[in-house]
TrEMBL record, chain A:
<feature type="binding site">
    <location>
        <position position="100"/>
    </location>
    <ligand>
        <name>FMN</name>
    </ligand>
</feature>
<keyword id="KW-0288">FMN</keyword>
<dbReference type="InterPro" id="IPR024920">
    <property type="entry name" value="Dihydroorotate_DH_1"/>
</dbReference>
<dbReference type="InterPro" id="IPR033888">
    <property type="entry name" value="DHOD_1B"/>
</dbReference>
<dbReference type="GO" id="GO:0005737">
    <property type="term" value="C:cytoplasm"/>
</dbReference>
<keyword id="KW-0560">Oxidoreductase</keyword>
<feature type="binding site">
    <location>
        <position position="127"/>
    </location>
    <ligand>
        <name>substrate</name>
    </ligand>
</feature>
<dbReference type="InterPro" id="IPR005720">
    <property type="entry name" value="Dihydroorotate_DH_cat"/>
</dbReference>
<dbReference type="InterPro" id="IPR001295">
    <property type="entry name" value="Dihydroorotate_DH_CS"/>
</dbReference>
Automatic annotation (TrEMBL), chain B:
<keyword id="KW-0813">Transport</keyword>
<keyword id="KW-0249">Electron transport</keyword>
<keyword id="KW-0408">Iron</keyword>
<dbReference type="GO" id="GO:0050660">
    <property type="term" value="F:flavin adenine dinucleotide binding"/>
</dbReference>
<dbReference type="GO" id="GO:0046872">
    <property type="term" value="F:metal ion binding"/>
</dbReference>
<dbReference type="InterPro" id="IPR017938">
    <property type="entry name" value="Riboflavin_synthase-like_b-brl"/>
</dbReference>
<dbReference type="InterPro" id="IPR019480">
    <property type="entry name" value="Dihydroorotate_DH_Fe-S-bd"/>
</dbReference>
<keyword id="KW-0001">2Fe-2S</keyword>
<dbReference type="InterPro" id="IPR050353">
    <property type="entry name" value="PyrK_electron_transfer"/>
</dbReference>
Amino acid sequence: MRKLDLSVQFAGIEMKNPVTTASGTFSARDSGQFYDIGRLGAVVTKGVASEPWAGNPTPRIGETYGGMLNAVGLQNPGADAFIADELAYLKQFSTPVIANVAGRTAEEYCLAVEKLSETDVAMLEINISCPNVKEGGIGFGTDPRMAAEITRAVKSVSKKPILVKLTPNVTDITEIAKAVEAEGADGISLINTLLGMKIDVQRKKPVLANIMGGFSGPAIKPVAVRMVYQVRRAVQIPIMGLGGIMTGEDAAEFIMAGADVISVGTAALVNPTAPVDILEELEAYMEEQGFKTIADIRQAFQG
Amino acid sequence: MKKIICGKVACNEAIARDIYKMQIQSPELGQAKPGQFVNLYLADKSMLLPRPISICDIEEGCMTLVYKVVGKGTKALSAYKEQDDIRVSTPLGNGYFIEGEELEHHTCDYRGKKVALVGGGIGVPPMVLLAKRLQEQGAEVTAVVGFPEEAFLIQELKGFCQSVHIATDRGTIGFHGNVLELIQEKEILAQEYFACGPKVMLRALSQWCQQQQLSCQVSLEERMGCGYGACVGCTCKIKVVTEAGVEIQQKGVCKHGPVFFGEEVAWDA
Ligand SMILES: Cc1cc2nc3c(=O)[nH]c(=O)nc-3n(C[C@H](O)[C@H](O)[C@H](O)COP(=O)(O)OP(=O)(O)OC[C@H]3O[C@@H](n4cnc5c(N)ncnc54)[C@H](O)[C@@H]3O)c2cc1C
Ligand SMILES: Cc1cc2nc3c(=O)[nH]c(=O)nc-3n(C[C@H](O)[C@H](O)[C@H](O)COP(=O)(O)O)c2cc1C
Ligand code: FES
């Protein structure tokens, strides 16, 4: 029997399997205390800006039925500290690094992209979809013109492939996807969190200090699968699919919908070893179905 | 490597109103430092996030946790029966600084040293393991514990402390007032204070210790996502001395704490 081959080509990078971590739910040193990071296809690191950001006040975390809310607000140490610390540490693993980039203005995105372009990251993921920052963030992701403008700007300064991460908080996701493709994005990742809110009815106050936050976890999966499916039919460039993936079968579902690779976010908070567990479950699913490659999964879908 | 292990509930019983003691057994349980916590992963998958609970005591293969029912998760926890399986992390966070590396401003030599452990409400449980370890290290341990009205874990503390002072908000048992008033009134003086409890209590105690120029360690609490440093959800503000002077940095309660020196905490920031 031929062995499983999970390897994928993703926007110019070679990955041994399609499983990656989702930005903001992975830290090399901390996640690496639970499993061997080298087993993953790639890692996507926490959002980093050109300068340090303080993020939002606490409480930043809430829980809802089958999902969670966060209002971290992209707290990060800035690109220089990120390069000196997290990136330097990640060198020891044979896993490509995709650095997630945040910004408030096109200039800020470009500054961070320029700095990161000089390192050995494999790819950059541009977050134009964070619901937790007042300026920039989601504003860029909800307007096709702005999304295109940021993509054009970062493409012009980047030496690395660019993934643009889209927000689900829009009426027509395909419009935004087409706009970033037209400006030369090498790939698209979707979805980021949905804008959500929770009220503590005992204390009669919002649960999050920031009032609203990003909604993630298994409860958002149907929205994510639908958007991956729609975007797959609207653009040619590769897709990283994420949003509520908890199991190997969830990963297969995203691949059938049109994702080339997948990311594991909230699941890694619910179970620290989730990324490698999901990889093993995906392998088990492929064995059970008689699939030899990731392409076999996609081709089997009759949609 | 840190792990999530499957433990067996050995007992889960009410020890006061809404306060439960749960013992979990697993051959995989190692040792823990006082002030460390574990994540409990509930069987009910509608509640995704783990519940962090401090380690009250730990021995070869058996861990004791004491928790208060405050919401859905702790309510579900209170329904676990003897012999039920429960998923629990190995110890997380850094405990109280009582052994190992000597810090510039702090020594871990407790022989003959007078220490006071100050617990408020559901902050009392970690004081039990702390008392045990400090006593083993030769310290003279006093506990000062405060509750709304009903006291718990007093016998356990008496096993490791030379004296246990109790305060209640309503004066139902012991001193009528809070723990700091009790310390001041009874002049419960020690060379070092260790505390866990509500933020207002930690802050008042820490300010008082600073005035007296006494060392004080406090265990902070914050809403957690992961409990191990991945989500950056649980930050607190800590004063750090750098070349440029004192600056306020954000530290993870789960990763850099939950215990900090009182004078490091930027209470108002
Ligand atoms: C490091 C650490 C150690 C802890 N140790 C203990 C312990 O030994 N015993 C114990 O009883 N509790 C402890 N807690 C608090 C415990 O984690 C919460 O009470 C529990 O998670 C609440 O879950 P729930 O589903 O019942 O409450 P929810 O339904 O989620 O919330 C109910 C109420 O509890 C409050 N709450 C929820 N989570 C927290 C939290 N993490 N901190 C403060 N308030 C919270 C909410 O604001 C709300 O008012 C600790 C917390 C931390 C961070
Ligand atoms: C705590 C937390 C922090 C996050 N931080 C970032 C971030 O810095 N950049 C980003 O692009 N997405 C961030 N996200 C969004 C996730 O990467 C992901 O898109 C989203 O959570 C949906 O996937 P999930 O349901 O698997 O978590 C964050 C999500 C969470 C829960
Ligand atoms: S709870 Fe996730 S970083 Fe502390």
